[in-house]
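For this section, I looked closely at a protein sequence along with its fold in token form, which I now present.
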Amino acid sequence: MGLGDYSQCRQRMSRGLHGVSGRAALWFPAFHSVHRTPCGTWHIEAQEQARASAPVLEHLRRQERTRVRMECALARLRAELLELRFQNHQLARTLLDLNVKMQQLKKQQDLERASKSQSPEDDAMNPECGNA
């Protein structure tokens, strides 16, 4: 295999990779081949590909930044929801405790009313319950 064969093989390999969609833009521009066009001017494929892929890469960067911002926002929302859930449980416990205390106070008040109705004055007025 002579020097010319190596050059042709290299050109075929670089052209073959450029023909695969999605792969050519991933290659570093220094690895792209330089070839002479039929009109006699030099044409650098890497510059064309860099110009063509720049908007695509910028779009991908924007999408990535957007995705990261969305994930951060979702994480903040999750944390806030967990905090609200914790506060909700605390409020529910407080309400239940208050309800229990209200029931206890109501029973205590009913017992005090009942004991006042059984006072000695009530006994004197009510001969059935008094001393016989």
